[in-house]
């Protein structure tokens, strides 16, 4: 019986394959590549349970009409990624021209605040091991410099933080947090994976993902924290916003975030192309899910957020 079912399944796939090739004039090589991509998306996309996959497949093949090489399918693959509607995933083709000089990354300056208030900017985090170590050390040193008994509160500035690696961000801001679960990834099947901070170490479930080897303790920890965001706070920047959600001593100010509060995973395809795919949704410590823009407690223009945060911390 099992052999009969396997035979019928094989025949059905062959019929569907011939149908796709005939209707859209795609080569076997192109079809194989398209099916590779669709299988990947159907298995891992954060929105996989919201998609009509038969309709999705037909639309991708329509865009791939007359594709005879793998490169011919790239516009169809790009379209397929947009049809996931997560606004975070993207396709990087193997033939992409990387010879163009990359634009320099922006540099942001710290704001000036009253002495009774601590201020720390948490910027984007991109780079290898050395860059990550420098990132953590720099933020830790700034916190240590301001670590006095007289602090009324702290400002965590996430404006312009467009993302990167969230785990160094978490251990860098760790002195402002208690140990324990700080948030979650939720997969499409509603399975949570906790973000854990514990004594200078960040874990995704049980996996150690970053460590602050120079961790410090705040002299006055039970103080108010103001979190600043704007519409360029994105991805891992949004994850840091989520980390502070649900805490009784925290209030957020500024603009709604960019709207890609989802976790991504990179997949390399058979031709060397790459898909950076949104596979999970961020949730806060209370398991409130996001996935879109995160709305601050006090909505205001980005350049007004600092002043409003200072007034709140000073009880004015």
From TrEMBL:
InterPro entries with a match to the protein in the record: ClpP/crotonase-like_dom_sf (IPR029045), Tail-specific_protease (IPR005151)
SUPFAM superfamilies: ClpP/crotonase
TM stretches of this protein: none
Tail specific protease domain location: 74-301
Name of the protein described by the UniProt record: S41 family peptidase
Record organism: Flavobacterium cerinum
């Amino acid at each position: 019986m099992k052999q009969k079912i396997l035979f019928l399944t094989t025949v059905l796939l062959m019929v569907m394959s011939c149908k796709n090739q005939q209707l859209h004039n795609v080569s076997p090589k192109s079809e194989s590549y398209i099916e590779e991509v669709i299988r990947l998306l159907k298995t891992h996309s954060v929105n996989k349970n919201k998609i009509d996959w038969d309709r999705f497949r037909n639309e991708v093949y329509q865009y791939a009409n007359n594709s005879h090489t793998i490169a011919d399918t790239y516009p169809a693959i790009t379209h397929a990624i947009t049809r996931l509607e997560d606004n975070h995933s993207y396709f990087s083709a193997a033939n992409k021209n990387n010879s163009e000089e990359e634009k320099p990354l922006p540099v942001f300056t710290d704001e000036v605040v009253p002495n009774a208030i601590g201020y720390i900017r948490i910027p984007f985090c991109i780079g290898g091991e050395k860059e990550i170590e420098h990132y953590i050390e720099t933020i830790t040193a700034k916190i240590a410099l301001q670590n006095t008994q007289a602090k009324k509160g702290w400002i965590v500035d996430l404006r312009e933080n467009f993302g990167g690696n969230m785990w160094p961000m978490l251990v860098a801001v760790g002195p402002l947090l208690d140990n324990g679960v700080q948030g979650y990834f939720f997969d499409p099947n509603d399975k949570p994976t906790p973000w854990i901070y514990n004594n200078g170490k960040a874990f995704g479930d049980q996996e150690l993902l970053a460590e602050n080897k120079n961790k410090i303790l705040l002299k006055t920890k039970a103080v108010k924290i103001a979190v600043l965001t704007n519409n360029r706070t994105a991805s891992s920047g949004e994850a840091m916003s989520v980390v502070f959600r649900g805490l009784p001593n925290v209030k957020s100010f500024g603009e709604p975030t960019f709207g890609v509060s989802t976790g991504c995973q990179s997949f390399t395809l058979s031709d060397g192309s790459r898909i950076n795919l949104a596979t999970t949704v961020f949730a806060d410590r209370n398991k409130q899910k996001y996935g879109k823009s995160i709305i601050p407690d006090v909505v205001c223009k980005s350049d007004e957020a600092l002043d409003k945060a200072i007034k709140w911390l000073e009880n004015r």
